Amino acid sequence: MSLASTFVHCPSVRDVAFLEDHLLAVNQEGFITHIGPFHSEESAQILRSKGDAEELIIIPRTGLHLPLMQWLDEYAYKAEEKLDADLGLAKEVYSKLAQRLIDCGTGAVLLFGTIKEETNLVLAEVMQAAGIRAFVGKLSMDISSRPTYREASTQSALTSARSFVHRCRSLTSHLPAYEQLVQPVVTPRFVPTCTNELLAGLGQLAQEENVMIQSHIAEAYDQVEWVKRERGVEDTKIFATSNLLTPRTVLAHCTFIGPLKLQLLASTGMSVAHCPLSNAYFSEKPFELASAIMSHMKVGLGSDIAGGYTVDIMHAMRQAVVTSKMKAGFAKTRWIDAHELAERGTPWPDDVDKSEPTTRTVDWTQTLYLSTRGGAEALGLQGGVFTVGAPFDAQQIKVFDPANGYGVGAIDFFGEVEDGDKKIDLGVLEKWWCIGDTRNRTAVWVQGKQL
């Protein structure tokens, strides 16, 4: 397959690159074999051998009022148990999820499943059939406030986790490596649902089987306080002593972790799944995203799916910027208030730095990186960027319709597009980032295959 296009990608967290009038070639295995100027000699040779190229614009790709622990009790556990009890229902739900992910341009996803092996195998099968890269985690939990929804013992939980790893891998073992889109993930739900023995066993299992680890950590005030009260230490310490903080680990949320501890966590090579909308509902505290980026921590964007109202990562990009700016404004306001009170003789608060705060925010281009290359790095993937040897995972975006002279969807052009000029620049890309939707998305590829 050959595509002639303007390609837009984020090679680094502070760089948006436009490859205008380029030709990209993809081999039968779905890997990029060439990307270069359309009129270069090498591109010309490819066109002579493969014929015409298609011209595109490509870009790599209830109960929420309750506190987290109460929401899990009243909603999440019941829903998961219902899926575990009816595999037909599970397949129906997961098939709908797969289609919505594709509609939203998501070609790679890290999923929390349920505690039953068979249900998670259905999830893996559906994602593989849909052509989506899926990291599927069978939940491990030997503690639960819902007696009917937990594993019988620590040992049975470990046995089931190991069995799932093997069975999930066997689903695609007959396929070439580049077509094996589904991977198992060791998934302790979080500290409140796992004994220390289970966590340690899962850390050992992940090391022995060389699989990824995912969990939730430091997400909400009630969860953080529960761990301190019941275990006597913070959940980050428990994960560290259980060998669960590794370069293969992705931890969601991390909102109740300050900049200094984030630097220590970054040194382990772990990644963060930043879900800004879910954090607004359950954390009541924003993630230190700007600090994480400054610490060179691997960060990808997530929707948390159940912890919000949309699976669309475009919304997560926008919400991440809003959250970052609100957080910076709050810090500045607290410093101003403390400064004014100190001038009137009130002691300076211990939790407010006396030096004037430096405004650290993220902009839209950085969140575009986090939703493409950043997410790929967090998942240990080579994609998210247009370079030779990378898998061709991308989405096609249409912002202008030359047939009628109008922008597509909510994107309007007033006097900006003349004589059929379709030049894609940073301004047009920002328009799409701000107000684009599924009407602009006309194709999605994973490993070179159009979904």
How would you explain this protein's 3D organization?
The structure is a single chain. The protein is α/β, with parallel strands linked by helices. It has two domains: 2-60 and 383-450, Urease, subunit C, domain 1; 68-321 and 360-378, Metal-dependent hydrolases (TIM Barrel, Alpha-Beta Barrel), CATH 3.20.20. Helices cover 41% and strands 20% of the residues. It is built from 15 helices and 16 strands. Strands 3-2-1-4-12-15-16 form a seven-stranded mixed β-sheet. Strand 9 (249-253), helix 9 (259-266) and strand 10 (271-274) form a beta-alpha-beta unit.
Tally of individual domains: 2
**CATH homologous superfamily designation of the largest domain:** Metal-dependent hydrolases
Q: Helicity level, as a percent range? A: 40-55%
Count the E strands. 16
Q: What coarse outline follows from CA principal-axis ratios?
A: globular
Average of per-residue pLDDT values: 90
pLDDT < 50 runs, ≥5 residues: none
Count of helical regions: 15
